[in-house]
């Protein structure tokens, strides 16, 4: 594994690159990809155990480590106890990335390639990195989709994990994606009404913006004619700690201004920087099912009737036609929507894993419903849930408080 070392004030960062099979478990398939992992150590911490960080997404790389205490905000706390492994999950970042140039492969070949970028394959990559580092066991911190990947880890390789820390990532196990998306609409309805109770004038502001979108009169800086569904998706910001401020600032602007057009583009959760996030986002909830545009199919009648109700991580088929950055991905996205994804989790194995640790479960989580998180928590008696309404889905990124609390709970220094 080639290694380069760099210094960032009091941090040492060893960048590792490992070549692994694209298709784990099939020796006849000779395709390979590269996996990048940055191992971050604070001065004096060279003998601490490893903690691998699994980023949310899917389709996003790990954050880059900068001099302490700058970024990411939880890193200082993690480095008090661990050497931290920032893994770029396959298809992202400095691992072999998926980008527009891959479209040259053709629809069928590229769609098949992307089916090998799931959480189960990420687990195999983690095991390869762990072995290369010479760690008998390590701990894992899984944020959102990274928590989903941690559940896949516990389904197959629980013996490799010392402690598990999960933040907003206790996914539904064994449920159809329709169950999940139907419940997330309930969460978005509550969040929308809560927002409008605080700022009632913004409902009329939203109506005016929706009317402009419906008339094709909202053109974003990249040339996208913003559809009603794209405008509504800006409500995804309500799922983050400070997101209501972003939404408030947007709705205070005049829609004809450059400021509004640029800010609206920035507020939308899905963009062309990370095409995988759109192209196979719903697969993260596909535990043995084809998704077939689950979020679109499960939209309740009141959301169809009232376009002022915000949506969250609800992808739309129409965006493959209307969003310039997604248009080249249209056929691949449609093909993946019909793909029958294999089972990802093994509930019996998770229950028998003996996993120890703690999980932050956000009571108002708009993306990973509380009810299904608690179902999954019951499979993990050794992983203590910390149920809180102090933070939204991105609580980990609000500083070191969330991780510090989980570590204290896992080591018996706190009950909750």
Molecular structure report:
- The protein has 416 residues and is α/β, with parallel strands linked by helices.
- 36% of the residues lie in helices and 15% in strands.
- The chain has a nine-stranded mixed sheet with strand order 1-2-3-5-4-6-7-8-9, sandwiched between helices.
- Strand 6 (138-143), helix 4 (145-156) and strand 7 form a beta-alpha-beta unit.
- The protein is globular.
- The model has no long low-confidence stretch (mean pLDDT 96).
What percent of residues are in strands? 15-25%
The end-to-end distance, rounded to whole angstroms, is 40 Å
Helix content, binned percent: 25-40%
As a whole number of angstroms, the C-alpha radius of gyration is 21 Å
Characterize the largest beta sheet: strand count, sense, and whether it forms a barrel. Answer: 9 strands, mixed
Which structural class should the secondary elements be placed in? alpha/beta
The count of β-strands is: 9
User: Low-confidence parts, pLDDT < 50 over ≥5 residues?
Assistant: none
Mean pLDDT equals: 96
**Shape label:** globular
Main β-sheet, spatial strand arrangement? 1-2-3-5-4-6-7-8-9
């Amino acid at each position: 594994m080639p290694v380069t070392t760099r210094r960032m004030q009091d941090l040492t960062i060893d960048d590792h690159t490992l070549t692994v099979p694209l298709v784990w478990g099939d020796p006849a398939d000779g395709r390979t990809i590269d996996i990048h992992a940055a191992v971050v150590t604070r001065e004096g911490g060279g003998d601490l155990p490893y903690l691998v960080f699994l980023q949310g997404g899917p389709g996003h790389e790990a954050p880059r480590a900068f001099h302490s205490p700058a970024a990411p905000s939880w890193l200082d706390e993690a480095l008090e106890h661990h050497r931290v492994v920032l893994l770029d999950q396959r298809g992202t970042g400095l691992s072999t990335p998926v980008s527009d140039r891959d479209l040259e492969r053709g629809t069928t070949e590229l769609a098949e390639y992307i089916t090998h970028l799931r959480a189960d394959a990420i687990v195999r990559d983690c095991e390869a990195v762990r072995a290369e580092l010479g760690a008998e066991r390590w701990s894992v911190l899984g944020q959102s989709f990274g928590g989903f990947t941690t559940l896949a880890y516990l389904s197959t390789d629980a013996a490799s994990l010392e402690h598990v820390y999960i933040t907003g990532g206790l996914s539904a196990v064994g449920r159809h994606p329709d169950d999940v998306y139907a419940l997330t609409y309930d969460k978005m309805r509550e969040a929308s009404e809560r927002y409008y109770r605080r700022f009632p004038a913004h409902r009329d502001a939203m109506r005016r913006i929706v009317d402009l979108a419906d008339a094709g009169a909202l053109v974003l800086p990249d040339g996208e004619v913003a559809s009603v569904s794209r405008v509504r998706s800006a409500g995804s910001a309500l799922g983050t700690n400070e997101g209501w401020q972003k939404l408030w600032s947007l709705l205070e602007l005049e829609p004809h201004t450059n400021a509004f057009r640029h800010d609206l583009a920035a507020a939308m959760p899905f963009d062309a920087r990370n095409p995988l996030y759109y192209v196979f986002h719903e697969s993260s909830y596909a535990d043995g099912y084809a998704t077939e545009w689950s979020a679109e199919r499960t939209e309740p009648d009141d959301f169809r009737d009232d376009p002022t109700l915000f949506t969250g991580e609800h992808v739309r088929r129409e965006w493959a036609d209307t969003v310039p950055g997604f248009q080249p991905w249209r056929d691949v996205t449609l093909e993946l929507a019909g793909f029958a994804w294999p089972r990802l989790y093994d509930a019996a194995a998770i229950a028998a894993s003996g996993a120890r640790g703690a999980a932050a479960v956000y009571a108002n989580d708009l993306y990973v419903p509380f009810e299904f998180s608690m179902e999954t928590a019951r499979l993990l008696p050794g992983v203590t849930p910390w149920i809180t309404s102090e933070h939204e889905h991105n609580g980990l990124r609000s500083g070191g408080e969330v991780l510090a609390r989980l570590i204290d709970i896992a080591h018996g220094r706190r009950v909750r």
